[in-house]
Amino acid sequence: MNRRTEPSLERRAIAGISDGGFDSVEKRAAASASSTPATSALADSFNGLPGHVWPRNARRQDDGVVTVAGVPLPEIAETYGTPVFVVDEDDFRSRCRDMAEAFGGGHNVHYASKAFLTRTIARWIDEEGLSLDVASLGELQVALAAGFPASRITVHGNNKTDTLLRASVTAGVGHVVLDCAEEIGRLSAIAVEEGVVQEVLVRVKPGIEAHTHEFIATSHEDQKFGFSLASGSAHAACLAAVDAENLKLVGLHCHVGSQVFDAQGFSLAAERLLGLMGELKRDLDPEDASAAVSILDLGGGYGIAYTEGQDPLDVPEVAATLLREVTTHAESLGLTPPELLVEPGRAIAGPSTVTVYTVGTVKDVHTAQDSTRRYLSVDGGMSDNIRPALYQAEYEGRVVNRFVDGEGISTRVVGSHCESGDILLSDVIYPDDITAGDLLAIAGTGAYCYAMSSRYNMFTRPAVVTVRAGRTRLMLRRETLDDLLSLEDGQF
Ligand code: LLP
């Protein structure tokens, strides 16, 4: 468990019954007493799988083995090796449906594919009736390769190349989100050449400081995305888009940041963008066919619980509030309420997945405070999860091949890379009976882990498997040495 977030018994009990049918703390304790008795409160807690952090279909069996969708994680580790990402397909799909229900239908929800994309994921998104947001040529190409309908794709990027713009226009994407002034002319020229009228949104920075890590806050002034509302450049960009040949301005976009827990940022952003919509209504000719500003895209950012002590953002509640506020505010400005779109990535993909590692070296290190810290090394690390190193992100791990019953010891879970900053869990109290060969799973790794993975130290990327109703499927195979060598061209 995490040192800084001692959960209350109530919190764990609530988690136990409210999300996905997890066993209550009491039931878990009884189960463990009947097979492998837990000897400490810490071990009892450590053996639990809080429902707001772990995949909806994760369970611990009476023998201590953790299953996801009925598949024992040790079995997956045996078949596919470790580290391995395990995606609970029903969890992923159910979060798509939750989002669609909250925001009035799948067409209003654009899954942010940067969180994690494969052709399989694109197919799931399509089957669940959601739309897709891509932010690069690669993401666009993978989506199209999956047969994802181009008309339900939105294209983002602060530095879109002509290649990306042309590929978007010729594929027939629904929307391109304009991010800088010179892009307007380039996109217009391409649309004219291709004989297409391209619908566009203008990305606005409403000047909101999201309370999240500096690197993932994207709506304040001093950053690279979009047009400033305060300076008037967003307004000017909208007029330029309307004037540009073969472009049709259909809405405004913003994204306040990622892993956001304070929903007021979304409300404030909506209010500011509606203000701009009001100005545009005043300035634009209602007969002008190149403008029909009817979309308000508020981006993604819905925060999830990575540890037991965190609460995920209550999406249905946030959605209901936003929809109500947008309607009221639009009407007070004399506007027809716009269609509200959102672009969640993490809140759909994140909680569906765990990464299973094998524990290797266990080393007790004397720290400067004259105490001991145990270093548990696992067989992956910053190459499959850069988030702790990049954002000081916190995670939660559990031994998944058995019950543990040791006493608490100050622990750091580290990877196998040649770098002391290769830390996955920085400061946790773990039972002291975790040993080499145990399987340690880390929860909440479905978003921005594989997507941001690297081959540092010539590590090969892990396999990704999906589980559903007791069956396992390989989504991405593990990279091999041949994959690494195959990039080398010619003689060496
Ligand atoms: N829409 C836009 C325009 C975005 O830039 C992003 C994320 C999203 C939607 C999805 O945000 P989400 O719902 O997933 O929070 N690598 C960082 C996150 C960077 C997100 C960048 N943009 C991390 O690992 O936390």
From TrEMBL:
InterPro entries listed in its UniProt record: Ala_racemase/Decarboxylase_C (IPR009006), DAP_deCOOHase_LysA (IPR002986), De-COase2_C (IPR022643), De-COase2_CS (IPR022657), De-COase2_N (IPR022644), De-COase2_pyr-phos_BS (IPR022653), Orn/DAP/Arg_de-COase (IPR000183), PLP-binding_barrel (IPR029066)
Residues that, per the record, bind substrate: R346, R387, Y391, E419, Y448
Sites where the protein binds pyridoxal 5'-phosphate: G301, E343, P344, G345, R346, Y448
Domain Orn/DAP/Arg decarboxylase 2 C-terminal: 351-446
Annotated GO MF terms: diaminopimelate decarboxylase activity; pyridoxal phosphate binding
One Pfam family from the record: Orn_Arg_deC_N
Keywords: Amino-acid biosynthesis, Decarboxylase, Lyase, Lysine biosynthesis, Pyridoxal phosphate
Known cofactor(s): pyridoxal 5'-phosphate
Residue numbers carrying N6-(pyridoxal phosphate)lysine: K114
Recorded catalytic activity of this chain's protein: meso-2,6-diaminopimelate + H(+) = L-lysine + CO2
Catalytic residues (UniProt): C418 (proton donor)
Domain called Orn/DAP/Arg decarboxylase 2 N-terminal: residue spans: 90-349
GO BP terms: lysine biosynthetic process via diaminopimelate
EC id: 4.1.1.20
Quaternary data: Homodimer.
Family: Belongs to the Orn/Lys/Arg decarboxylase class-II family. LysA subfamily.
Free-text function comment from the UniProt entry: Specifically catalyzes the decarboxylation of meso-diaminopimelate (meso-DAP) to L-lysine.
Name of the molecule in the record: Diaminopimelate decarboxylase
